[in-house]
Structures are given as structure tokens and as C-alpha cells.
Amino acid sequence: MKKPNLLKLSLSKLTLALGLCLAATSASADLLDDVKERGVLNVGTEFHFAPFAYLDAGQQSGLNLELMERVGSELGVSINWIDLPWPSVLPGLEAGNYDFVAGPAMITQERKLRYNFTLPIADATVAILKRADDDSIQTPEDISGKAAGGGRGTAQLEQLKAFAAELPEPPTITEYVDYSQTYADLAAGRIDAVANSLPNIAYTATQRPMFEVVQPPFGQPAFFGYMARNDEESASLVEAINEVLLSMHEDGSLSELQTKWFGAPMDIPSEDFEPEI
Amino acid sequence: MFDWPTFLFSLPLLGKALLITLQTSLLGNAIGFVIGTLIASMQLAKMPLLRRLGGSYIFIFRGVPLLVQLLVIYYLAPMFGLPNLPPMVAAIMALSLCSGAYIAEILRGGLLAIPSGQREAAHLLGMSRPAILLRVELPQAVQSTLPSLVNELVLLIKSSALVSVVGLADLTRVAQNLASSDYLFFQHYLVLAGIYCLINIPLTMFGRRLERHLERSLA
Amino acid sequence: MTFDLSIITANADAIWNAFLVTIYTWLAGSVLGLIAGLLIAALMLFGGRPLQRLLRVFIELVRGTPFLVILFLVYYGGPSFGLRLGAITAGVVCIAGYSSVYFAEIFRSGFAAVPRGQLEAGECLGLGRLQLMWRVQLPQMLVLILPSIINMLTILCKETAVLSIITVPELTAVLTGIGTRTFTFIETLLVLCIAYLLLIEITSRAGRWLERRVGTYLQR
Amino acid sequence: MPLSLSPSTSPPAASNLEATPKGPDKASPIIHLSAVGKRFGNHQVLADINLSVHHSEVVCLIGPSGSGKSTLLRSMAFLEEYDEGEIHIEGRLLGWEIDDRGRRKHAGRTRLNQARRNLGIVFQQFNLWPHMTALGNVTEALVRVRGIKRNEAEKRAMEVLDKVGLAEKAKEYPARLSGGQQQRVAIARALAMEPKIMLFDEPTSALDPELVGEVLAVMKQLALEGMTMVVVTHEMGFAAQVADTVVFLDQGSIVTRGTPSEVFRDTQHPRLRQFLQNYLDRNAFWHTTTEQEN
To answer: Scanning every residue of chain A, which has its alpha carbon at the shortest distance from the alpha carbon of B58?
Structure first.
């Protein structure tokens, strides 16, 4: 047998991949029509993001489910949830593996260019979670020189990195596949601080008294939204969902949901806005 | 140390997930076998182009970690014209493409061990090349490589622990979810390891018995 | 679809460091695994029945469990009884532990492949068990088992990708991280594939060269 | 000056052992087997073997395959554990120890090695170490066991290799040697340790017929020099020419024994006659010549 020629093989692999890129075809119909026709809205998310989407004793649970249920009933479709590790969620959306992402994801300038976001659904300002018995951290700046963690590929992690760079002695930062793992390592003592959006860590701290939120939040004011692909087919879907969100603003059901899951209603924009980050 | 109520509660959930794990790995293995047969026969073909294609396939799918392959398939599948790929399909696709490379290597060994006289005899009887492969050579190659094939199945069942990256709630993902909701990491992962062992160890022993049987029948 | 490799050059430092982490976890884990494997094989050869049984059970359990699950057990399960390893250390330990049982099986088959008579001849000349193992069995079996060892090394090289799941900042973790952050999934994955293919090709080439070198005495 | 290999001139081995008789004692046997037996499960491999081998005596063990002759030879080096009777080498019990309660237990490794120091063994399959050169094979035990410096050991090894006619092959690996040459290296490896007794276990059975002669020649030479030898063999010609005693085994027992002429010519024993007849039939093409010689 001939020995495989390394260079040739790598090249053939490269051409294969490039050929595939060229062969890519795009669906042309309107996504909202498609969804209504099949009666199912495929939604990607990650069920390690309490209280938006998480697993309570194996059962899917969280604000996302209740909110999207309302969306589903207004559009007359059922919701099919696809649970993925967060680093895979956005690529999956782009690849067309589902119609919509109810992450939720923090709305950033960069992401706004790339995706079609819905109206905000919650506050997303980033703060620090620490162990309750750890007295060495009183303000966000106290994480200087310590070990902190965040979710790989999240905007919260980027905020943490930006904040850390300003500190006299930048903390070591570990990147986790999901936030459940960061909380686990915080409990195990491998890290001293987790940076995540306030609603998430506030909820986690009420569920697990061993954790405590460090006030005030260190991040810029930010909001969570859902997203679709930034193409013509998806525009009508986002519009339709925005209408549902607006009606929920008006009838107070969005505030009700926020009170149920975060303990208090949140002040969030009900129209398009320019994110500060 | 061990929380029995939690364990009993988790069993039905793990049971359902086990079915998904078995479904993916068994189907992946079956399709992988078809791919493996194809690639192995390509490698033994006379045409240099076919041989090189078969070789490249094995080089790529054995050279890239399964985790990366899963990501690639998940991100790139739509370019094959497969949008809205259900997680189960993506997982089975990745597992079968990967195991196909390994099975091809196993079958190639088995096919090479068959005396060429048999092919010549079948050829003289007027059998076509595919017919010879399917009716004469493959059954023998499978028989002589069965222990390795069983071993490959065990490896695939273990590899399937990675399929959650394409969104499939397999055994590992469910245990991970359970652990992150009650923080009983050690317990859940121990149970998880136990379930894998309960499937894999008997399979391994079965493979070993086949091997001994084979050695005896050849001796 | 755009194809923009500048993202790779822009992050060259981070990727290089990740590459070093991959190499480190892979090689350190493998070397420890080889040593542990040799130890297990030797203990199974010379140890008493109960020890043999115990090691057999250990081998079967590790072989029956996916590498990812072993990682989870050690990294996330460890702290519940005070084993609090860093991610990289945990990665090295797991690769070592996981590979040790496979290496042990390879060594065991190697020991068995050296004909019994050669040992009898040595025994009759007064050579001790350890002398025979060191001078007669090991040098011969290294040639016999070299292909299996190289094969196992390539498998372990690929297993390091799984370490990304427990936060080890190796190639897969860093490149997919860059991909998610900058929306360059295709480019980063392609680089990832090529990096592993290169590593594995280099390993198997080195293996083939080594096989030719050490096998000279078998040539007629 | 050729290296002398006769036991009388080799240095007394293990002189610290009280039971070792000093110097050659032609009267008492160097190997003594009394009522030796061995069984594998229900199968009696050896039964009630009594045999003495004296200094400079050459004993050939013959018999059909499965008769237990190889097992008997291997028992003399304790490569097989005999479980009944006793084997004494130079007056010392081989392989076993009798404890305080009079029960038999395995002798320690050092004790076994001391007993084996007197023995050199040559196997059917040569059992050379393929990763060492011929010289390396011969030198290994001299260095590791006897603790002789490497260059001195190599000098001694070269002398022995020269004796078996292979000095010029010293640097070759076994794979590059013929079967006959490999077996001669194996003999040299055993001889280098200066044993008092050489045990040969079918040394020519694995060889192509045309290579048998060179090995037998070396063995004959050894016998002439007065080496004590026990040889399991199918080479009846060698046994007839060289042996002092021929022992015929069948089904694990000694059927008959005597000088070659007693065994080969005058025997009345039916099983031995059958065995020799089969042997002659196999080599029927020179049947007539042998009869004329007889």
C-alpha cells in the first residue's frame, strides 16, 4: 500500500470543505409561514441557565418555557426544545438546525449585527457570585488576583475579561461549557467568583444559600433577548414574536413572569434600542 | 454518602436516556458497518483513485477527534442540504461516519486474509465483483473479525457519551443534568459509569469468548 | 459564506498556548499511563491471585467507562471527598489512569509473546525474574508492542479534545471558544481538524521510523 | 590451548555448601533419582523412576513420544516439578525442602539456583534471545549472574564460541544463523557457565536433517572430553556410538536400560523391539545397510 501523502491529504480535505461551502444552498421560503405550516417552532437553548431554562429534577423548567408557551399559543404552533451546550447554540442557529434561539442571550452591538434579536425580555447586567462564607470578596474589585469563571462563548465572560483587565492583579479566568459547571466549581472551591447576569445569579443564590451575590453589578447595563438568523426569511418570525412580547408588556403578563422568576418586575425597553456593550 | 431516594428517582430518567444511547450507538454501528464495507472494498480495489479515496476517508475520520467530528457535522450538515437536522440523526451520522473508518480497517484485514483462489474460483463461475464481495468474501471476513467488531461496538457505545454536543439527551447528558440540579456529582457519575459498565463488560466478555472460540476453531 | 483565516493569525498566541496545553496533557498523561501500565502488567504477572483479581476488576471497570465519564467522576466527583485537582492536572491524571489499563493489556500480551523457553533458558543460567524481565522480555516485547503503543498514543491524542469539556484550555476549547465569540465556526473547526491530523500523522510516522530502527535484529 | 570443559578441572562450585563432596568422587553418582513420579491430574507422566548418573557418564534417554523422557530430563533441572520421590544433584535435594514437620515445600530461589549452577541445559527450540548477538547470548549470564567484568566475560565467551566453531559468527543475531548454528550457540551459552552436567532435550529434533551432524559433532567432542551428559534423543546412531548407558522409557516408566549393545542388540523386551522396529521402518531406505553392519 502507498503511504498516505500528508500534504496531499490535507489539501484534499481542504478542497472538500471548500467545495461543501460552495454547494451550500439556502432555503427561500418565509420562515414564519414554514413554522405555521409544520405547526412546530424548533427552539434551541441550553438547559443549564437557571432560571430561564434549567432542569428541575430532570424536568425542563424556567421562564423561557412559560414565555415561549405564550408565544406558541398566539402563533398557533407547538414549541420543540433542543437542548445544547451553549458554545453549540449559536452555530446551530446559523447552520439552520432550528428556527430560533430562546437562550436568552445578552444583546450586544456585535451580536446585533450578526443576529435578529427580539425585544428584551429581562435585565442582563453582569455581577459576581461568591461563596457566602468567603469574606474576602465584598466588592467586585476584590476578585483581583483570585480565580473566576464564566461560560465559554458568552457575552458575560467577555465582560468579565474586560473588567478583569482593569484590575491591579487580573484574576485567572476559567471558561466553562455551561454555568452549572461554574457553580459546581465555585462550590468545590476551585474558583472564587462566577460572573453571570444578575437574574441568573440572584436566582441561584436564593436556591442555594451557600452562594451570595456581590453588589453592585460590575457590568454595563444590558438586556437579554431571543434571537433568529439575520436574514429575510426570519424577519417575519421575529416581528410576530415581538408583537406577542409587546402585548405581554401591555397586559402585564411579562412583569408577572419576571416577578415569579426574579422576585421583582424589571424595567426593560419595549422598543428597539442601542446596546451599550 | 449515597442518596438512595435520589438514585431511585433518577432511574426512570436514566432508563429512557439509556435507550437513546443504545439506539444511537447500535444504529451508528450498523450504518458504520455498511460504510466500513464500502471503504474496505474501495481500499482493496484495483483503481488507484478508489484506493486513495478510501485511504483519505480513513485518514480523516481516524485522525480527527470524534468531538470535533460531531461539531463539524453539526455545523456543516446544512451545507449537504440537510437543514433542521434532528439531533438524533446528527449523532447517528457522526458515529457511523467515524466507526465506518475503524470498521473498514478491521474488515480490510479480514478480507486480505481470504485466499485469492476463492475469488478466482467465484469469478470463473461467472459471479460479478459485488456479488463475490457480498456472498463469498464478506461473510468470511465478518466471521474472522467478529471479536474486533464487537470490540468496536463497545468503543462506539463509549464514544456516544459525546453526542450531547449536538443536542441529544443521551445517558451522559441526563446524568450531567441530574448532577447539576442537585450537586450530587459523584453519585450520579458513579451510577452513570456503572450503567456503561453493565453494558460494556458483558459485551467485552462476549467478544473475548468469541475470540477464544475462533482461535480454537482455527487451531 | 465568508472564509476568513485572519481570525487564526489574530489569535495566534492563544492558539499556540492551547496547542502546548494539548501536547502537555497528551504526553504527560501518556508517559504516566505507560509507567502505570507497565506496573500493572508486572503486578499481574508476579502478584498473587487476590491482587490479580483486583487489578482485573480495575481494568474491566475503566475499560467499560467512557473517557468523558471518568473525567466527570474525577473532576466534578472528586471534590466530594477532598480530591480537588486543577483542570489540567485532572486531565493528565485521567489520561494516565484511562490509558494505564490499555497499556497494561498491551504489556501483558507483550510479556506473553516472548516464548516461555527463553525464560527457562535464562532461569537455568541463574538469571533472576527481574533480570529476565528487564534484559530478555522488555527489549523484545517493545518491538512487538510498539505498533500497539503508537496506536494507543494517537487515540489518546484525540481524547485530549474531550478535556475541553472540563475547562482545560486546550486546542478544542480555545478554538471553539474563538469560533463562538467571533462567529468564525468554519475556519476554527477547519484549523482544529488540520491540527489533529498533523499531530497524528507525525506520531504515526515517528512510530514507523522507530519500528524500523529497533527491529533490526529481526532482519535476516 | 583449548578450553578444557571436563568437570575435574572446573572450579568447585558453591564451595560453601556443607553437603558438596570435595573433588570428583567417581564412586558416588552426580545425579541420583529415587522413585521419582509426576502426575498431571489423573495422568501419571512419570512413575517410580530410579536412575543414577556418574561422573563423565553419558546417558541417553530414548522412547516413543509421550513416553515422559523430556519431562524426566526437565525434572532434573526442576523445570518440571516432580511430586513424588527425590532427585539429588551432588548429594543435595533438588527443588524441594523438607520443613520441620517433615513436609515438602518449594526450595528458595537461591537454593534452586545453587543446585542449577551444576547444570547446563540445551533445549529443542534453542531458546536463544533473539535481540542479543551470539556473543551477547553467551556473555549475558557471565556478567549478570557470575558478576564477571564485561570484557573478561566476552573473552571467555569467544573461547567457548570458538570451541563450537562459531567464533566468526559472534556478532550475528540469531535470526541470521542457521538452526544448527543457533543450537551450537545455545550449547556455548550453557558451557560458558562451566557446568558439571549437561542436559540435552532433543537438541536436534528441530533441525533440518543436513544440520544435525554439526550439532552431534560438538556433543561427541564434549563426551570425549569427559563431560557428564544426559541426552534425550531420537538419534539412535549417536546413542549407539556415544552413550555409556541407554535408558528406554515408555508410558512414564523405565522399561529397560543398559549399554548400547545390550539395549539395541540383545534386548528381548517386546516394547523396545517394537519401538526400534518402527524407528528402522521409518528410515527404511538404509535398512539393509544397517543390517549388514549388525
So the answer is: A4
Category of D154 on φ-ψ map: left (φ > 0), alpha (ψ -120 to 50) or beta = alpha
Q: Which of C88, C110, C68 is nearest to C27 (CA)?
A: C88
Q: Which residues of C21-44 are buried (b: 16+ CB within 10 A; e: fewer)?
A: bbebbbbbbbebbbebbbebbbeb
Query: Which domains, ranges and CATH numbers included, belong to chain A?
Result: 40-123+222-262 (3.40.190.10), 126-218 (3.40.190.10)
Nearest residue to A262 via CA among A58, A54, A62, A60: A62
**β-bridge pairing D58-62 and D228-232:** parallel
ipTM value for the complex:
0.77
Chain A hits for B182, Cβ within 8 Å: 57
d(CA C132, CA D109): 14
CA distance B194 to chain C (A): 8
- List, in sequence order, every residue forming a beta bridge with A148; answer none if it has no partner: A173, A193
Question: Does chain A touch chain D (at least 3 C-beta pairs within 8 Å)?
Answer: no
> Which pTM was predicted?
0.81
Give the span between the Cα atoms of A110 and C182, in whole angstroms: 9
C36 vs B: CB within 8 A: no
Q: Do C189 and B68 touch (CB under 8 A)?
A: yes
Q: How far apart are CA A244 and CA A65, in angstroms?
A: 15
Contact status of A48 with chain B (Cβ, < 8 Å) = yes
Q: Which CATH number fits domain B4-218: 2.60.40.3450, 3.30.450.90, 3.40.190.10, 1.10.3720.10?
A: 1.10.3720.10
Q: Which residue of D has its CA nearest to C140?
A: D131
In a mutagenesis test of the B interface, which of A43, A56, A97 is the best target, namely the one with the most B β-carbons within 10 Å? A97
Contacts 24+ apart (CB under 8 A), A189-192: A189/A131, A189/C79, A189/C84, A190/A147, A190/C79, A190/C84, A190/C86, A190/C87, A191/A146, A191/A147, A191/A148, A191/A149, A192/A130, A192/A131, A192/A134, A192/A136, A192/A137, A192/A143, A192/A146, A192/A147, A192/A148
* Side-chain-facing half-sphere of D160: CA atoms under 13 Å: 26
Q: Which ranges in A134-231 belong to alpha helices (H)?
A: 155-166, 179-188, 198-207
CA distance B112 to chain A (A): 12
Residues of B in contact with A187 (CB under 8 A): 183
C76–A184 C-beta distance less than 8 A: yes
Domain-wise residue ranges, chain C: 6-218
- For the record, the C-alpha cell of B42 comes out as 474501495
pLDDT tens series, chain D, 294 aa: 344 444 444 444 443 444 444 444 556 888 999 899 998 888 889 999 999 999 999 999 999 888 899 999 999 988 888 888 889 988 888 888 887 887 888 888 788 888 888 889 999 999 999 888 999 999 999 998 888 999 999 999 999 999 999 999 999 999 899 999 999 999 999 999 999 999 999 999 888 888 999 999 999 999 999 999 999 998 888 999 999 999 999 999 999 899 988 888 877 788 888 888 887 777 655 545 444 444
Q: How far is CA A72 from the centre of its chain?
A: 20
Q: Chain C residues within 8 A (CB-CB) of chain D?
A: 115, 117-118, 120-128, 131, 135-136, 139-140, 143, 217-220
- CATH number listed for the domain at residues C6-218: 1.10.3720.10
Angle CA C119–C122–C124, to nearest 5? 110
**Residue D121 forms beta bridges with which residues?**
D199
